[in-house]
Write a structure and sequence with these properties.
The chain is an alpha/beta fold. Strands 13-12-9-14-17-18-20-21 form an eight-stranded mixed beta sheet, with helices on both faces. Strands 3-2-1-4-5-6 form a six-stranded parallel beta sheet, sandwiched between helices. Helix 1 runs parallel beside helix 2, helix 1 packs across helix 8 and helix 4 packs across helix 7. This is Coenzyme A biosynthesis bifunctional protein CoaBC. Pfam families: DFP, Flavoprotein.
Length: 403
């Protein structure tokens, strides 16, 4: 999944021959999962049509402050457009537009939106080689960079004049790659490794039966998604679940039984910065697994159980640099039992669920948690979607690294 997924992009197009490439650029933004609105200067419409861009972006294209042919038409609010965007891209950025951006010459909707933008701004210059190297253009590059704008360097090749040299607008694929790399490099969990466990474990009785629980794995999967979206490299060790996740920063390690989850986790644990044990691991397993299906031969049937290896306790016992988060699902004496778990398993933070709370626990789209840290600071949270709870949990990871 691209870091552009879900991002709101305001694309400003100025009047140069390279404007024809913006149709491909919009298509690539949309393909990456972004939402796009387009502002065109009047001159840019000589090179690419608003109809093409509105069709590709699935949004109206803006090019003037109001429709002069309709006296009842409301004005295009440049401030509203600028505040909507997560970031703005100006491509192509001609010498004329760069000069206006530098000096605040606000004579069209694009420049008005740019001057109102509080979000990051990228610009991709496009012009002939002599214009690109002219001292006034170089001064514009320097000034705009000093304002905090990010320049996507022009490429070298054949130009509209027939000359060959530097000044070609970066190809759409390269603009996408530049922005993705820049955004990824600024993500707060970039470079951090996080191990997350999720889902139930199934402990075999015979080839067709098992001891398990109702965990869907959704909480762990949601935490993995949020952490990866913030730049973390995530290893997700998951028991049996119908859930799927697709993210370039998430490695999924499927397991079935507690013993498998234990060994899989310890392949990665020593190298991670954070471990979040969200899986509902079986506490006990059958001492003996039958090789064949057990037949119904009597009214009574006894299964001898033995303890599984305690994955979370083993994390705590071997903890070095790891920030360790555990979960506790309780039905009585919730706070006291959670505090004991913090001490016994050497946790930094516990996420407490109570089955006494409506909307919490297994098989629901919501959760109601209480954070308790190793100093026993208690922070109850309201009922939220599991996606929102995952964001809250990852926020605790961010607090740890910021402290």
């Amino acid at each position: 999944m691209s870091v552009l997924n879900g991002k709101k992009i305001l694309l400003g197009i100025s009047g140069g021959i390279a404007a024809y490439k913006t149709a491909s650029l919009v298509r690539l933004f949309i393909k990456a999962g972004a939402h796009v609105q387009v502002i065109m200067t009047p001159a840019s419409k000589d090179f690419v049509t608003p109809l093409t861009l509105s069709t590709l972006s699935k949004n109206p294209v803006h090019s003037s402050f109001y429709n002069q042919d309709d006296e009842n038409e409301k004005w295009n609010n440049h401030v509203e457009l600028a505040l909507w965007a997560d970031f703005m891209v100006i491509a192509p950025a001609t010498a004329n537009t760069l000069s206006k951006m530098t000096h605040g010459t606000c004579d069209n909707l694009l420049i008005a939106a740019y001057l109102s933008a509080k979000c990051p701004v990228y610009f991709a210059p496009a012009m002939d080689l002599d214009m690109y190297k002219h001292p006034s253009t170089v001064a514009s590059f320097q000034a705009l960079s000093s304002f905090g704008n990010m320049m996507i360097p022009a490429e070298t090749g054949e130009l509209a004049s027939g000359l060959s040299g530097e000044g070609r607008m970066a190809e759409p694929e390269n603009i996408i790659a530049f922005i993705e790399a820049d955004l990824e490099g600024k993500l707060p969990l970039k470079g951090k490794k996080i191990l997350i466990t999720a889902g139930p474990t199934y402990e075999a009785i015979d080839p067709v039966r098992f001891i398990g629980n109702y965990s869907s794995g959704k909480m762990g999967f949601d935490i993995a998604q949020v952490a990866a979206d913030l730049g973390a490299s995530v290893t997700l060790v998951t028991g049996p679940t119908h859930l799927k996740i697709n993210h370039s920063l998430i490695q999924v390690v499927p397991v079935v039984a507690a013993e498998q989850m234990y060994h899989a986790c310890h392949e990665f644990y020593n190298d991670v910065d954070v471990a979040i044990a969200a899986a509902a691991v079986a506490d006990y397993k059958p001492k003996y697994k039958a090789d064949q299906k057990i037949k119904k031969a009597s009214d009574d049937f006894t299964i001898e159980l033995e303890k599984t290896k305690d994955i979370l306790a083993s994390f705590g016992a071997h903890k070095k640099q790891q920030f360790l988060i555990g979960f506790a699902l309780e039905t009585e004496n919730e706070i006291e039992n959670a505090k004991l778990k913090i001490q016994k398993k050497n946790l930094d933070l516990i996420v407490l669920n109570s089955l006494q709370d409506d909307g919490a626990g297994f098989g629901t789209p919501t959760n109601k948690i209480t954070f308790i840290d190793k100093n026993f600071v208690i922070e109850p949270m309201p009922l939220k979607s599991k996606e929102a709870v995952a964001t809250d949990i990852v926020a605790k990871v961010l607090e740890h690294f910021d402290s």
